[in-house]
Amino acid sequence: MVFGQVVIGPPGCGKTTYCNGMSQFLKLIGRKVAVINLDPANDALPYECAVNIEDLIKLSDVMIEHSLGPNGGLVYCMDYLEKNIDWLESKLVPLLNDHYLLFDFPGQVELFFLHSNAKKVITKLIKNLDLRLTAIHLVDAHLCSDPGKYVSALLLSLSTMLHLELPHINVLSKIDLIESYGKLAFNLDFYTDVQDLSYLQFHLDQDPRSAKYRKLTKELCDVVEDYSLVNFTTLDIQARWFLRLLKLIDKSNGYIFAGIEGSVVEFSKIAAAPLDWDYYRYPSPLSSAAVQEKYMKDDDDFPD
């Protein structure tokens, strides 16, 4: 059984930076990690890449050969990858024994709530290689400063969750820059908990661009609230933030149960336990005490 993450989100939300930071943190706590780049437009990788889709197909070649733009080219690349899934599986097989997998996907959002090829790639990998994957959907935190963009991000997150049908965690990335584009109208908890979107209506009405779409916006907010699936956790590129997020991920895809033998009751106790479970039971370059002292200091004051 192999565990990993499917990292998705709009362009510029920080997917590649996230994969780089998360891979470094996983290595620090003692996990062997392999990053798989499935973005044929990503030609400047900051991390060591175990598998690179550019060895199979390049976006620049597709655009020239088929006279396509970047969006059409990315759809073609994902379709080509789906039809050549055996190539990807053969590259992943040597990593399955002892690696944790990070899949860095393209930033074209249509691939994850409109087109089916990316979903089919993920589904085939899960079925054929017995993978346990969690989707990490990154959204740039500065969108919270614009009510209209925030509602769009909510709808995109909900659509992606329903389309992919994976354990799913929505993340507000670059949380340290959240107010760089303007002061928030509400406390951060309002944007992460997504509880009562009616409060956004007044602020939407102040913008003449969105005032004429008031009824449509209200209906969209009602859809998000009726499903009651979307909420966010937060992320800054620091080790303590990665630790909090990784605990959520490990609970969502079942990593916390790996190697544990027990009854259904014992599994239920673990599943219902707080996030500070015995996280450092695996060998680490640092001792358990050292890691916890380094990254969990003043954890009670750490933002949820």
Automatic annotation (TrEMBL):
Gene3D superfamilies assigned to the protein according to its UniProt record, in alphabetical order: P-loop containing nucleotide triphosphate hydrolases
Record flagged with keyword Acyltransferase: no
A molecular-function term among this protein's GO annotations: GTPase activity
Highest rank taxon of the organism: Eukaryota
Pfam families the UniProt entry points to: ATP_bind_1
Keywords: GTP-binding, Hydrolase, Nucleotide-binding
Keyword Lipid metabolism annotated: no
A GO-annotated cellular component: cytoplasm
InterPro entries named in the record: Gpn, Gpn2, P-loop_NTPase
Chain's role: Small GTPase required for proper localization of RNA polymerase II and III (RNAPII and RNAPIII). May act at an RNAP assembly step prior to nuclear import.
Oligomeric form and interacting partners: Binds to RNA polymerase II (RNAPII).
Family statement drawn from the similarity comment of this UniProt entry: Belongs to the GPN-loop GTPase family.
Entry protein name: GPN-loop GTPase 2
